[in-house]
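Re-run requested by the PI after the first attempt was lost when the workstation crashed. Everything re-entered from the original request form. Ligand of interest: WQD.
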Amino acid sequence: MSLAGKNIFVTGGLGFIGSHTVLVLLEHGATVHLIDNLSNSFPRVFEHMKKLAGDKADKMKFTKCDINDKETLTKIFEKETFDCVIHFAGYKAVGESVDKPLEYYHNNFVGTVILLEVMRAFKCKNMVFSSSCTVYGLPEEVPITESAPLKAISPYGRTKLFQEDMFRDIAVSDKEWRILLLRYFNPIGAHPSGDLGEHPVGIPNNLMPYIQQVALGQREFLRVFGNDYPTPDGTAVRDYIHVMDLAEGHVSAVVKTLATPDLGCTPINLGTGKGSSVLEMVKAFESASGKKVEYKLVDRRPGDSVAVWAATETAEKELGWKSKYDVDDMCKHQWAWASKYPQGYDTPL
Ligand code: WQD
């Protein structure tokens, strides 16, 4: 599928998923203007992206900009016409959102209101939104379909759910809006080159960055949060999806919005449809890295669900997309990134 001649605006474009998605947009012929406020990313990411983009590097440009900065957003939209917006920008740490709900609601929700007001002013009404399986809360059954009940259980999750509700209301009020809500499951892995990956700031909340740091000898051991779940090995199950599969899913979503005048507002799960336990991920990373990952079994983490994995039929039907990489690929590519850049984007070149 080609995006030749299409100009895409990407918020959060220097983030983990945003940076990988921008590269895949370029591969499909698009030009990209990306913004990022650098609250959870680094200017150096753009250097790594330019290296990987090769002769397409001049097809992307970066502006340091916060989505709450209406003046700068307006200036950008005055100068350029965009065919579609992919909106990644937002705070995303579940635990932090419990301590700082106001910052999360302001940045994630009010920021999106401002972005949408600018889009509307310039008649850009095609949106691909970075949503999350977190809007399902603690699912009653798996695989989770897009029609499952929505009940976020953290301020972070509620910011995603409230944004989805806002998008649904906008689509009802103005039929010109075409909005896809992409609900990611657990994004992991890295660019196969090893030159782009996830760089969590501070102590990682998520499993795979933490496992990576244990394998690198930067942390002593992994705490496995609970081994008394009703799962085959007692540890919780998640649908881990390769960041490159996610990036391709976003390109398919942009193509879909451009080709579907009556799209309205549609949620789509982006997952593999397969579940892996915490201990299975430990073993997979050990075999990919050749390193021992020490761990200790500790109590469950409050708010965790037992098992979460996606129903993938909608993505296949609506986007013609399905994941290609398996857990071993995810761990192999993550290790390629980790061993090349053990301090992430702080690693001296
Ligand atoms: C995965 C599993 C933990 C760390 C989160 C967000 C969700 C989405 C994806 C943004 C769980 C276990 C973890 C550790 C562990 N992000 N674990 N030891 O909680 O499924 O989802 O990221 O949209 O919104 O909630 O991901 O990686 O934190 O945990 O045992 O040190 O690994 O208990 O079972 P989670 P996670």
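Saved to the shared folder this time. The domain at 7-188+242-270 is CATH 3.40.50.720 (Rossmann fold).
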